[in-house]
Amino acid sequence: MKDVVVIGGGPSGLAAAPEIGKKGYDVTILERNGELGGLLQQCIHEGFGTLLFDKSLSGPEFADIFINRVHDTGVKVELETYVKSVEKREDGFEMTAVTPKGVEIIKTRSLVYAIGCRERNRFEIKIGGTRPAGVLTAGTVQRLVNLYGVLPGKNPIIVGGGDVGLIVARHLYLEGVESILMVYPEEFFSGLPRNAQQCILDFDIPYRPRTTVKRILGDKKVEAVELVKVDENWDMIQGTEEIYRCDSVILSVGLVPYSEKVEELGAEIDCKTNGPVVDEFFETTVEGVFSVGNLVQIFDYVDDAVQTSFVAAQGVDKYLKGFSSKRDKPVKLKPGKNVGTVTPQVIAHDADDDIKIFFRPGIEKEGARIELTSGKEVLKHQKKRYVRPSTLEEMELPRDILSKKKEVMVDVR
Amino acid sequence: MSISRKVKKVLKKFPYDISFVVDEGIVLLEGEVNSHQEWVKIGLNIGDIKGVKGVVNEIRWKGMKEGKTRAERRENIASKNERKRLGKHEVVIIGGGIIGCSIARELSKFKVDVALVEKGPDVSLGQTRANNGMVHPGLAPSKGSLKRRLNVRGNEMYGELCEELDVPFKRVGSLILITSRTLKKYKRYLPLGLNTGFCKYILPWLVKKKADRNRLKGVEILRGDDIKKEVKGVTDDVISAVKIPSTGIVDPYELTIALYENAKKNGVDFYLDTEVVGFAKEDSMIRGVITDKGVLGAHHVVNAAGLYSDEIAELADTKEFTIHPRKGVELLFNKRIQDDVEHCLTELTLPSHPTSKGGGINPTVHGNIIWGPTAKEIESKKDTSVDKKDIDEIMERYSKVLPDFPRSEFIRYFAGVRAPSFTEDFIIRPAKEVQNLLHVAAIQSPGIASAPAIAEYSVEMLDKMGLKLERDESFDGSRRAMDRAAEMSDDELRSRIQEEQRWGNIVCTCEMVSEAEIIEAINRGAESFDAIKRRTRAGMGECQESYCLLRIADIMSKELDIPLKNVKKEWAESEFFDGTVRGEEG
Ligand SMILES: Cc1cc2nc3c(=O)[nH]c(=O)nc-3n(C[C@H](O)[C@H](O)[C@H](O)COP(=O)(O)OP(=O)(O)OC[C@H]3O[C@@H](n4cnc5c(N)ncnc54)[C@H](O)[C@@H]3O)c2cc1C
Ligand SMILES: Cc1cc2nc3c(=O)[nH]c(=O)nc-3n(C[C@H](O)[C@H](O)[C@H](O)COP(=O)(O)OP(=O)(O)OC[C@H]3O[C@@H](n4cnc5c(N)ncnc54)[C@H](O)[C@@H]3O)c2cc1C
Known about the structure:
The complex is a heterodimer. Chain A is built from 7 helices and 28 strands. In chain A, the strands form 7 sheets. In chain A, strands 1, 2, 5, 6, 7, 8 and 20 form a 7-stranded mixed β-sheet that branches. Chain A has a 5-stranded parallel β-sheet with strand order 11-18-12-13-14. A 5-stranded mixed β-sheet of chain A has the order 23-21-28-25-26, with no helix packed on it. The model of chain A has no long low-confidence stretch (mean pLDDT 94). Chain A folds into 3 domains: 1-119 and 255-324, FAD/NAD(P)-binding domain, CATH 3.50.50.60; 121-253, 3-Layer(bba) Sandwich (FAD/NAD(P)-binding domain), CATH 3.50.50.60; 325-413, no CATH class. Chain A is of the alpha/beta class. The longest helix of chain B is centred in the middle third of the chain and has 22 residues, at 192-213. Chain B is built from 15 helices and 25 strands. The mean pLDDT of chain B is 94. Chain B starts with a helix and ends in a 27-residue tail after the last helix. By secondary structure, chain B is α+β, with helices and mostly antiparallel strands. Chain B folds into 4 domains: 3-61, Histidine-containing Protein, Chain: A, CATH 3.30.1340; 70-129 and 252-323 and 423-464, 3-Layer(bba) Sandwich (FAD/NAD(P)-binding domain); 134-250 and 328-416, D-Amino Acid Oxidase, Chain A, domain 2 (2-Layer Sandwich), CATH 3.30.9.10; 485-566, BFD-like [2Fe-2S]-binding domain (Arc Repressor Mutant, subunit A). The chains are: A alpha/beta, B alpha+beta. At the A-B interface, strand 7, strand 8, strand 10 and helix 3 of A face helix 10, strand 21, helix 12 and helix 15 of B. One flavin-adenine dinucleotide binds at residues 94-100, 117-120, 125-128, 130-134, 136, 275-276, 304-308, 328, 373, 416-418, 443-449 of chain B.
């Protein structure tokens, strides 16, 4: 019986495992791919680690730091291992994993899910029209270009103005596509201003805000798209349709946590984040099962995602030692006015340390006031110069303000 | 009253100058109307006349795209290939949908030399790929229609057929729901109390009566809590329901692929990627089928070309019917919500209308749920596009039946185009002007359900047309499905991996498909991504290819020994990628 199995060898799993291993536990990472690093391996641009290490690293460089820690702390790694199913047993969990060597049954006292997220596809954003070849997600394009030296097309259009889209746009431009256009429904790029400058503006790559793809045209291969203007609610404005010729459509329209597997185990899912409901130590509603990184919610920075791993490591330690600081009645944290998501969703323990919460604003606003409220009582407030839905915000939550509270709302005013 | 007089009477209702000719029950229409809708309406009205066996609707509508280009293209190709000899067979079947493949397999039970010609690179690329997969019980088609007879018989044959071919088929049963909306159109005439009483007692009784007449077994009327027990989360608007246990579900393309594999094993020659563009005729007989690859000599020809069956008839100089394409959009849901729907559900609305009837909520054999289809008359047979408003329409319609269903959890939408004629019945008969051509045309819904019976019936027709049929004792009707890692026990999978480690490399994580399965699909003839997808289910899960596309393309490139750039989605010229990064030209 192992102490801890970490499922997923991306950044958050790589960060969690050694942090737990350091405390003397028997820890194993299971990874479905043939190498560690997850999404970072295909992100050869720089910009990782600015918060955590104060320097700008490429994806693989950032991953290497953690891979070294994994090896230094004696964490075991099983690659090409696909976790087929997990079941709860009296004394822990039993999992079935498929590998090129066979089918293994693995037993463990606790579990950390670090399986990340997948890319949103065209169906999820209801792009109409035909379904020809040439519609690809940005992640696929990154792998295609980096690993195979092949381009998605000569005249791509990129949908989505987030960081992934920005980086892919520059990459394709530099690799020699003949034409390129970026469209996105926001008024401004939703990625970091720095990325917008360095990826699009510096190269004069054409872009159109408040625009989306209504339909894809072409029977066998993408031949064109029908663009349409959208208003501030992202509703299409009739009569603004325009045909744009292109041979590929690259979607960078958001990520969705891979919560299916945790749900199968019985964990409650938050329909706002699409990830499992977690407490301040990232324990899910199934005892002994933790969840970290982008599975919990989509983080803008890998640096923030791995922070969840460090906190979860403390939680796993507590769990395995068997001392419970759990309150009788947990406090619920909920998105209130003008807030999309909040994590963690519950505060379940009595402890000394403060809690860092993450929330995604539901609106764009200058001079916003963030409030933590319980009923009519404002427990804490804070000013922010500027908030928007595409930027995840964080805030310290002092434990002392929680006493006798059942539910705390996060509001943006 | 003669057909001519009836036609004249119908045409009087329309403000156009339309001329017509009636010949042995076939009505040829010519003229011009304002819109495509009017074109459909007139066609349907004429098709409705008793005794009319076919409507050739050559009326033009304003803004109509010149249909000539397709004919010209074919003529061009035909003239280049009419002297190239490709082969010679006793029977040549045109079309590799479920119908063509069913007939091919049925004929392979006899000592007959059969070939099937399909223009696509795989079988099952027409209507057969995009439908509900429902094996209807045979309740809906009207009395005396061929549809009804073949549907009832087809349904009966399904269990055995799918067992032989190792294809999943489930008799899940269907419920026809009678709700407070069923008689909405008659609200004016029915006070509320009467309406409810009618819906509770009389309507279900009428439906059951009809089912009994069609010899459907085990049909029950349900009311109140009994309905709620059968259908979790059903709307409170439901008043009564009729349950038909014989309704089934099948994966239509898997069945078609199985029929193809088995027919091939029993000696049928398949010419894929081969398009029929004309005929070489002598008097009223076809001597050769001209394709874009050369000519196939033939004694008998079967027209099972689906949407294009009218154009095949025209190529053989025997215009007898026109197909009016009708699009149906389907919405497919995540497997995660599978246990919410166990039966096929339809809400009855009266009066039923040919272009809005049908549609419902169906489970699939793989554990997904399908909502749809819509029904929209369209101008182009190729139009399988889906728009947001189609999706919204489906959502709105079926949410009324299951109000709490997690409707945002759909993972894909797609559309198929039905191939109805204006008489709305199947057309299975020898061609009027060509002695050795059998039409098996206008096979719209319930074409999947009827397919086994259509094959049987078509062979009877060929017999009558003089094809010599002698049983082939060496016929082997069994076929083995692809093995699937997802369906194996741990021990089974373990021993497979011992033999071949690629069973342990899972490339599609949503559906748990291994590399070994991709290779097996390629060995069974799949050359495109979608052909692999239909055989393995790779890419059919929640992420819709975003994880596995490149992984599978990479395996295809190695196994088929082609550059990654040449890996195709389906058709020629449907490559996924194009171009190389700077400095790696070529
Ligand atoms: C949205 C929708 C939902 C449906 N739901 C159901 C259902 O639930 N149950 C049911 O029983 N039925 C259903 N149907 C009907 C069913 O799908 C069809 O009846 C059935 O697939 C017809 O098969 P087919 O072989 O006649 O046609 P197709 O599958 O269209 O096959 C015709 C083939 O001929 C080929 N072809 C055409 N022209 C040429 C040429 N010149 N040369 C060579 N090849 C050619 C085409 O490429 C095609 O592969 C539905 C249909 C639709 C569209
Ligand atoms: C019973 C059933 C279960 C399914 N289950 C799943 C599932 O679990 N997961 C999943 O992802 N998908 C599922 N599908 C959908 C499937 O993956 C495809 O989306 C579907 O077969 C339509 O194909 P497509 O969208 O790839 O075709 P499209 O990309 O829409 O391409 C259609 C092509 O077909 C050709 N065509 C010609 N004639 C016709 C015609 N009459 N009708 C339709 N096409 C025509 C056109 O040339 C066009 O290029 C299911 C489908 C069925 C029928």
